[in-house]
Amino acid sequence: MRAQIVIILAALGLASCVSVLPKAGPDPDIFRLSERSLPMPLATDPVVLVEIPYMPKALRNNRVAISHGGQSIAYAGAARWAAPAPQMLAALVTDALLATQKVNVVTPREGMHPPIGLITEIRHFEAVYDNGAQNAPLGVVTIRAKIIDRRTRKLLAQSQFSAQSRASENRLEVITLAIDTAAQDAGAQLGDWVAEQLAADTAG
To answer: Are 99 and 137 in contact (CB under 8 A)?
Structure first.
């Protein structure tokens, strides 16, 4: 079934107008990010506390975000992510770290207090129509990351990771796949960087 897109333009989460490209079906399609297959055995040390990522208000939901450039954010009316974006991306970051086999991970709900923490900010998690609304967009994901010493709140390292993936068609299922591909790429970059930083810190 060819899914269609309803665009609800927003400025940082505030709805402004509605555009139809063209009519959408009555029920949204639900999409998930890919689950990474984790290698075994997993590392036992060092352990990193992964916080829920910070995201701009306009992206802190389960809507599939779309941008036509500039400051406006739009949403695909016929699509939803299976969970709010911060929750999905926290799982993606966790798996990316575990996949290195050099870092273990705990989350705040586990009640553990390792000395190293990872704070992330998702700057982009969207499809960007850089070639016009009728052409296939780019899936774009950008993650800013900080490694901190949780005992002293000292910043140990920081970096930014970006990835893009062009959708092969202007259809929702293909567009969400492009966003997923970009997210997995950015997450892998982040995981490798964290592992390298902590290995260097241990060696030093």
So the answer is: no
